[in-house]
Here is the input.
Amino acid sequence: RRFILFRQKIRHPSAEDGSSPGRGLFLWCGCPDSSITNAADTAEQCIFAPYSPTRMKEKIIPQFLLAAPSSGSGKTLISSGLMAVLTRKGLCVQPYKCGPDYIDTKFHAAVCQRPSINLDGFLASAPHVQTLYARYASQADVCIVEGMMGLFDGYDRDRGSSAEIAGLLGLPVVLVVDAKSAAYSLAPLLYGFLHFRPQTKIAGVLFNRVGSPQHYERLQEVCTDLALPCFGYLPYQEAFKQGSRYLGLDFRQAADLARLDALTDLLEQHVDVDLLLARTLHPRPVLTETMPAAASGKPLRIAVGRNSDAFSFVYEEHLALLHRLGTVTFFDPEHNETPFAPDIDLLYLPGGYPENHAEALANALQVKAAIRAYVEAGGRVLAECGGMMYLSQGWQAAGTFHEMAGVLPFAIATEKSQRRLSLGYRQFTLGGQALRGHEFHYTQLEAHTALSSAAQVHDAKGRDVGTPVFRYKNVIASYTHLYWGEMNLMKLFE
Here is the structure.
């Protein structure tokens, strides 16, 4: 049966009862359209979904996946902006990101003040993706998943795509459509997305880069003719043009904070957020698992090299797993001080942009010496991409060779003339375990004949790729960012 959604604003409890004034409380009612007369008369027939920050234990909350026809449509911009709008309203917003991306999750976390969780259909099993989503949704008022690339773009046709994640989690999709230089020609595009995979439920559309109110009126005509809800638009603003995603926005900086505030203001003005929330109400996922048990045996002592840029590509679930294994301490490899006790059980060096910090890393002599001593004594090390680069002999930058930890017998080619893109999912077997990960870098290895690869690496379709996996003593190092959220990490070193 069809239902009509309508809303009735209720006066927020006054300040004298201890609550915060100024927040509206909406009562969302889904009533059979054949019987609707008015809200008061049909109250007993309605399915009520009161919506406010106090609904922490309610079973129905707004949840949706924000996708687009293609990359570059404005998903990250509008995702971050909507998260900021809802956070400004006092809601607890749980962010997620489809795919292996480390950068967009930083934007989400900065806005929502909660970790953004990666959901990837190639790196992780379907039950694991569902468990991750449910675990972090359990205390949220709103869940927003930012898609990757185009809605149906996956590693093999639409396998692993945002549409697959939406179906796996039962989420409605909100399309972000770049409307620059287009109007009614978007009708066949949207018609195709509505009907290509009927099981993918499109809740509505948001238009980006709209030139004027008159332009938006023409876009609304498209939605009317397709019976597609239109939630609003973001006007074209030169200030929101984003170039390379190499570093992107930094919401700790005053200029980017001002841009975020301006974006939030515009979305509040031009997007019907209440309608969007009403159209995306969905049962909160039931978390059937308890938190994974801590590792049996003696708790491990784990050191993680981490800072805001050079060693910043870390999945939240990896940190949770490490904490379950034992005690985790963090150190900054750019700080010239003793980084960790020599008797730790594991050193983890994640990826990031160490090439941007070559001088500081090279000058931190105590850190480099401690890592070399730990490796030569048989210490376990997992180094991914930038972490592997740091274990190399070093690299040339601005005419100077910067020496790194010197554990692995090769240097890194970072000069512009030597750079080339290496990108894609990766899979291989090591230590009897099937591993999956993702590779995305421009730097390259210089000659490394002194150390051969410990595994043959394949892409998502099983084709051989040349990415090596190095094993030196108890060091495992590669350009591949591994996903080990559902495996026994320590078995790799057996």
Summary: The longest strand covers residues 202-210. The two ends are 58 Å apart (CA to CA). The mean pLDDT is 86. DSSP finds twelve helices and 26 strands in the chain.
